[in-house]
Amino acid sequence: MSQSLRAVRGMNDIFLDEAETWEQFESLIRDWLKSYGYRPIRTPIVEPTPLFRRAIGEVTDIVEKEMYSFEDALNGEHLTLRPENTASCVRAVMQHSLLHSGPKRLYYYGPMFRHERPQKGRYRQFHQIGAEALGFAGPDIDAELILMCARLWDDLGIQDIHLELNSLGSSEERAVHRAALITYFEAHAEQLDEEAKRRLYSNPLRILDTKNPDMQALVEAAPTLMEYLGEESLAHFNGVQSILKDNAIPYRINTRLVRGLDYYNRTVFEWVTDQLGAQGTVCAGGRYDGLIEQLGGKSAPAAGFAMGVERLLALWQSSGGEPEREVPDIYVVHQGEAAQTFAFRVAEDMRAHGYSVLLHCGGGNFKAQMKKADGSGAPCAVIIGDDEAAAAEVTLKPLRDGGEQRRVAADQLADVLADLLFAVEDDDGSL
Ligand code: ATP
Ligand code: MG
């Protein structure tokens, strides 16, 4: 196949078994979000570029080098494929005045786009599930967001995951800390790498996030924001922690957790696993009280998280959480002209009764069709010849447990299948 027609690097096709795993996962996720009162929001995949520049911040990895931005060839608008969904949610909430009727718990699900170096767990089109709680100021909602994640890990049977927690304080507290950091790094300028030097005055906090091993000791000894938190920020942080403790959620305070996006304040957290190599952060979130105002709206508090679906699915699978493959209830085999006409009727009738039916298409002899029926995984085949068609009957053949095949009147088939497929054990264990 010509190289130019292949999918864009870092953007994946998802199909068949894997796509079914995704769908099962998605339905589980929706139930989980709804059980906490979160309601869906769907925003466009393309937004005006200034939205992300203003929301995420100019001096961030995303805005500096990861955005798919382009000029609309028809009207010259500057557009960007969304690299995350919080900015769009906040835009939509402002545009439609959703907070007028009180705080909102919202969730989104869908593809995001970042121009990164593709590797395991890091793609250029990837998917996120996110929850955003808008209009809530207290530590209760921060804690609930975290508890929610813990319940999902439980539901999915994921054990190898831990919580890292930090507080970024208020913008005033950060400003004082920022000044202290600059003074500290200036005093050790000879130990800074190029990236750190570049960020020293624009975003010194991000230096703490460096992956350069030569700078670890320097960063380790830097002044922490925790030392600069005021009374209110401390009370908020303690509030979150006490709910986590009440609910037996273990966590580790990581004062170097700063997150890659600019809009966070107070609580930030990440759920991290050792199972996925370098791409170990499965979920990241926190509070972003300043964002709505920063985008020109009426100030309102907010908190949320985003999970990487590809990483979460990989972790689910490594925890043995592969769902069962779906198979049709019956496979309909038919031979002859009258039989085909009748087979279509029987198949539609069974679907109307709620069964999933794979109707053999494409002809072939009886043996070949039975082979297909076997390969489909269906628990039984419904066999129709011209004989059966003339008598308005079908032959029902169990495929898995060696049961006897038998003739069944077509108008009885739905009931007979119900007995066969959904035989439920009584309390005493008998069928
Ligand atoms: P990282 O440090 O791994 O680049 P990030 O801080 O950029 O992550 P966020 O913007 O917080 O990530 O996104 C939330 C989650 O989305 C991440 O924790 C991760 O699970 C997932 N994620 C982010 N970028 C990618 C990507 N390129 N491919 C797959 N998943 C991603
Ligand atoms: Mg990133």
Automatic annotation (TrEMBL):
<dbReference type="InterPro" id="IPR041715">
    <property type="entry name" value="HisRS-like_core"/>
</dbReference>
<dbReference type="Pfam" id="PF13393">
    <property type="entry name" value="tRNA-synt_His"/>
</dbReference>
<keyword id="KW-0963">Cytoplasm</keyword>
<dbReference type="GO" id="GO:0005737">
    <property type="term" value="C:cytoplasm"/>
</dbReference>
<dbReference type="InterPro" id="IPR045864">
    <property type="entry name" value="aa-tRNA-synth_II/BPL/LPL"/>
</dbReference>
<dbReference type="InterPro" id="IPR015807">
    <property type="entry name" value="His-tRNA-ligase"/>
</dbReference>
<feature type="binding site">
    <location>
        <position position="114"/>
    </location>
    <ligand>
        <name>L-histidine</name>
    </ligand>
</feature>
<keyword id="KW-0030">Aminoacyl-tRNA synthetase</keyword>
<keyword id="KW-0067">ATP-binding</keyword>
<dbReference type="GO" id="GO:0004821">
    <property type="term" value="F:histidine-tRNA ligase activity"/>
</dbReference>
<feature type="binding site">
    <location>
        <position position="259"/>
    </location>
    <ligand>
        <name>L-histidine</name>
    </ligand>
</feature>
<dbReference type="InterPro" id="IPR004516">
    <property type="entry name" value="HisRS/HisZ"/>
</dbReference>
<dbReference type="GO" id="GO:0005524">
    <property type="term" value="F:ATP binding"/>
</dbReference>
<dbReference type="Pfam" id="PF03129">
    <property type="entry name" value="HGTP_anticodon"/>
</dbReference>
<feature type="domain" description="Aminoacyl-transfer RNA synthetases class-II family profile">
    <location>
        <begin position="1"/>
        <end position="328"/>
    </location>
</feature>
<dbReference type="InterPro" id="IPR033656">
    <property type="entry name" value="HisRS_anticodon"/>
</dbReference>
<comment type="similarity">
    <text>Belongs to the class-II aminoacyl-tRNA synthetase family.</text>
</comment>
<comment type="subunit">
    <text>Homodimer.</text>
</comment>
<keyword id="KW-0547">Nucleotide-binding</keyword>
<keyword id="KW-0648">Protein biosynthesis</keyword>
<keyword id="KW-0436">Ligase</keyword>
<dbReference type="InterPro" id="IPR036621">
    <property type="entry name" value="Anticodon-bd_dom_sf"/>
</dbReference>
<feature type="binding site">
    <location>
        <position position="128"/>
    </location>
    <ligand>
        <name>L-histidine</name>
    </ligand>
</feature>
<feature type="binding site">
    <location>
        <begin position="263"/>
        <end position="264"/>
    </location>
    <ligand>
        <name>L-histidine</name>
    </ligand>
</feature>
<feature type="binding site">
    <location>
        <begin position="84"/>
        <end position="86"/>
    </location>
    <ligand>
        <name>L-histidine</name>
    </ligand>
</feature>
<feature type="binding site">
    <location>
        <position position="132"/>
    </location>
    <ligand>
        <name>L-histidine</name>
    </ligand>
</feature>
<dbReference type="InterPro" id="IPR004154">
    <property type="entry name" value="Anticodon-bd"/>
</dbReference>
<dbReference type="InterPro" id="IPR006195">
    <property type="entry name" value="aa-tRNA-synth_II"/>
</dbReference>
<dbReference type="GO" id="GO:0006427">
    <property type="term" value="P:histidyl-tRNA aminoacylation"/>
</dbReference>
<protein>
    <recommendedName>
        <fullName>Histidine--tRNA ligase</fullName>
        <ecNumber>6.1.1.21</ecNumber>
    </recommendedName>
</protein>
